[in-house]
Give the backbone structure.
Amino acid sequence: MKQQIMPELKIGDLRIKIPIIQGGMAVGISLSGLASAVANAGGAGVIATAGIGMMEPDFDTDFKQANQRALRKEIRKARQLTKGIIGVNIMVALSDFGEMVRIAVEEEADMVLLGAGLPLKDLEILIPKHPGEKKPKVIPIVSSSRAAKIIFQYWQKNYRHIPDAVVLEGPLAGGHLGFKRKQIDNPDYNLKKILPEIISILKPFEKESKKKIPVIAAGGIYTGSDIFHYFQLGAQGVQMATRFVATEECDASQQFKQTYIDCNKNDLVIINSPVGLPGRAIQNQFLQEVSEGNKKPFRCYWRCLKTCDFKTAPYCIASALTHAQKGNFKNGFAFAGANAHRVNKIIPVKELMASLVEEYQRQ
């Protein structure tokens, strides 16, 4: 039987040997430790910026300075640990979105992945001023071909430049989802259905710009067989997050990783996040109490997300996720993808990546 060869992912002049981008997991789950390990194993490692300053002493009093300092530290630390590809995941909904983008550019991140909103205005800093100028590759994270079209049309008209690739995230992803609740289980919105649509939408932009725009499939991708399947549908790379939580190098606490190992399928639930989006998480006592109408009192020091209505929110999501990262699940919870129940042990990143490649080759 002929062995399938996993192709590298090409994003402009970037070459990702194993076409896997590690998904950005915010509030301290994917920092320099995980990102550098993935990059060293041949994939693209990603540092997530939301709540990145949580360990800084002045986070509660000056969260913007804390976040900026922490992001610089983590990018520089990752650079010391790897010569591979390092990206930065930045939520458009962050109140310090602009500052995070500027730091990613200044610290010469290889790519910026922009989700949780449409990355449109005030992004001139990401546009090369002359051919050959080094800037991070721009990769919007979207959940529909419509969103991709809006972004590409805006960039084409206003910047005379278009993003370098697109991550298409389906409804089986963990964390905040770009779908309405009724769409999550609707087959019309599953990744297999929407992937060909976005590839078709991007063809005219490829033709006009004379550059390839790879589509990176995300959300519920778990095995090398899954990767092969989405490549057959036209994807040129995948983004995976859930699998990387249960690795030795993941930056979360051991207790956080253990929640993935201990959960079963029925524990994975869709919640209403205080930021106005549905999200997939692992059910626990904290979430149960919230669903029963118990408010978790908090003071909002900084309003980290533009979309958070902190005056009516039943709890502070930044605080809950910070507690969870440290293993304090009495006061927090873990986001997770739809396949988190399949995780059964903690392994090194290198071993995980090798197993995904081997599974792909067996197809």
